[in-house]
Amino acid sequence: MPLENPPANRYVWRMNEQADRRPDWDEYFMDIAHVVSRRGNCSRRKVAAVIVSDRRIISTGYNGTPRGITNCCEGGCPRCASNAPSGGNLGECICAHAEENAIVQAAYHGISVRNSTLYCNLSPCLMCTKMIINAGIKEVVFETEYHFTDQARGLFEEAGVTCRRFIRP
Fold first, then answer.
1. Which member of 4, 99, 145, 158 is catalytic?
2. Fewer beta carbons within 10 angstroms: which end of the chain, N or C?
3. What pTM was estimated for this model as a whole?
């Protein structure tokens, strides 16, 4: 039995089914951030940042101990291995934040992050807020709010950095 001729448009999308829905750019990069977060070696929290310029990933980072230091999840960070409460004894933590690692990783490879967008699965802390501003990142998109202070929000606003929460469709 001969095969019928294929329709003129062979690429018919079933866009009304959720599984086949094409993600917009924010969802696409946030999904990538969630995959990157799985690399995090902090024993307390998995966080990732993805820095994007012209819809192209230029750097990623996740939270954990510095290069060459025993991973947090292997006991490298005494603070994380302790029973310190969330947000407590942060001065003792040797883990670097995801945003910090993404910015430093770009610098390590000589890549400018100026005028880029940073996607992160958690809102940035005050320290990361200052780094983001000084690195010249123009926009921050986060999914979950975590200790996002009024001071951090105010700094972003004063510096002209757009900061918005991503809401999943």
1. 99
2. N
3. 0.85
